[in-house]
From TrEMBL:
Native source organism of the sequence: Dyella jiangningensis
Name used for this protein in its record: Glycosyltransferase 2-like domain-containing protein
Domain Glycosyltransferase 2-like: start-end pairs: 24-120
SUPFAM superfamilies xref list: Nucleotide-diphospho-sugar transferases
Source taxon at top rank: Bacteria
Entry-linked InterPro entries: Glyco_trans_2-like, Nucleotide-diphossugar_trans
Length: 235
């Protein structure tokens, strides 16, 4: 198996419908390019409506697992445990991939012929907020790792060799103690271990901003990522 595509759901309800369509479209396009893909669905403490939205996952080839972590990072980690693909990538059940994401990210990683972490070229935010930004290349001369002390360069919908996710799992969010942003923390850890982060040309991720999401809760709780070599303030 070349790619394990992992879709994680929680309480998205009807919003997961477009995400399922996007997930399946990218898988079908990649398969049309001769790439093998296994669809994995992780429903973590799903609402009843979210569970209902995935009731026919088996009919389109998805393997479904239900968990009780209550945490997006741990749900992704469980998907990695189930994965058999050479590469792993993620989609949240209220977000969207461009149709070419799987095929283009796979092509970049194969072309690099080394371990790299791929991200979409463009991130588009929609819903309660509207914004967009380009994902940066950590090997570009203008890249500044110091920015990671105040902001996150890349989101969680990455694409990378499975062993990277196995060796460096996502941290459980601990909002009550002031720590969170598991994707930001994971990016710091992987970069500090020497894994380049690379944008994939002509790809887009569309990220929904809504009340009650993990990112919204982390922002409202004013948490910070756990200390790492990349995020460590000293005096």
């Amino acid at each position: 198996m070349q790619i394990s595509a992992i879709l994680t759901g929680h309480s998205e309800g009807l919003l997961s419908g477009p995400s399922i369509a996007s997930f399946r479209e990218a898988i079908d396009f990649a398969r049309g390019q001769g790439i093998s893909v296994e669809p994995i669905v992780i429903l973590d403490r799903p609402s009843a409506l979210t569970r209902e939205m995935f009731v026919d996952a088996k009919s389109w080839g998805g393997t479904l697992f239900t968990t009780e972590f209550g945490d997006p990072g741990l749900a992704r980690n469980h998907g990695v445990v189930q994965a058999t693909g050479d590469f792993v990538t993620f989609l949240d059940a209220d977000d969207l991939w461009s149709f070419n994401w799987l095929a283009a990210a796979h092509a970049l990683c194969v072309r690099e012929n080394r371990d790299v972490i791929a991200h979409s070229q463009l991130n588009m935010i929609f819903g309660r907020e509207r914004a967009y930004w380009l994902h940066v290349d950590s090997e570009h001369p203008d890249f500044d790792p110091g920015y990671l002390q105040i902001g996150n360069y890349w989101d969680a919908l990455s694409f990378a060799p499975r062993h990277i996710f196995q060796d460096i799992p996502f941290h459980k969010n601990e909002l009550s103690t002031g720590y969170g942003h598991e994707d930001w923390h994971w990016n710091c850890l992987t970069l500090s271990k020497g894994y380049p982060h690379k944008p994939v040309q002509d790809t887009v991720h569309m990220k929904r901003r809504r009340l009650g999401s993990q990112s919204a809760r982390a922002n409202s709780s004013d948490v910070v990522p756990w200390p790492t070599d990349m995020v460590l303030f000293t005096v």
